[in-house]
Amino acid sequence: MQRVCGRHFPDLFGERSPQQYSRDARSLDALVVGQLYSGNPDLSELYYRGIHDFDSLEGAELVRFSALMVEAFRRSEEMYYLQLEGRLEPYVWRGIEAGMREFSGYPGIQAWWRFRSHWFSEEFAKHINQLQQTAPPPRMYREPMEDE
Question: Which CA distances in Å does 100 have to 3, 83, 140?
Fold first, then answer.
């Protein structure tokens, strides 16, 4: 475990250079998305419904979606602190942050975040709150524009 800003996080990558952290961060992200969502149609459908309408989820769906969100935001929180420490290449952080901003634009993500942001560090929560304020309209999955 590593201590970052008074909190303990699993050190997923060990002591490495910023280039190695950056490469490992991109690989981990691709692995999680590729294995978790694309390999499980039910989970993909739950994820898609949840990011659009968190309030419609109940029971086991709510638990599963929340578990997905905790994992996504914990990974993002780890990357946030790695970049603060200078352990991620700036271009990698820009890509991660851009994805976080778009992800944070979904109404279901914003609703879940209001429900569970207290589970995360205050500094990271402030960062996500800022991203949500500047998030573009959701378009990650080709959602139609308001005027379409």
Answer: 23, 14, 11
Of the candidates 4, 1, 2, which has an alpha carbon nearest to the alpha carbon of residue 120?
Answer: 4
For 8, the enclosing helix (H) or strand (E) is: strand 7-9
Distance, in Å, from the CA atom of 34 to the CA atom of 21, rounded to the nearest integer, reads 20
| Amino acid type, 126 | K
Residue 7 covered by a domain: no
Task: Enter the DSSP assignment of 73.
Answer: H
Q: What angle do CA 31, 93, 53 make, to 5 degrees?
A: 65
User: pLDDT by residue (tens digit) across 56-65?
Assistant: 999 999 999 9
Kindly tell me the burial class for residue 26, based on how many C-beta atoms sit within 10 Å of its own C-beta (0-12, 13-18, 19 or more).
middle
**Residue 101: inside a domain:** yes
* Domain that residue 62 falls in: 19-134
Domain count, the chain: 1
Per the model's pLDDT, the better-predicted residue between 39 and 35 turns out to be 39
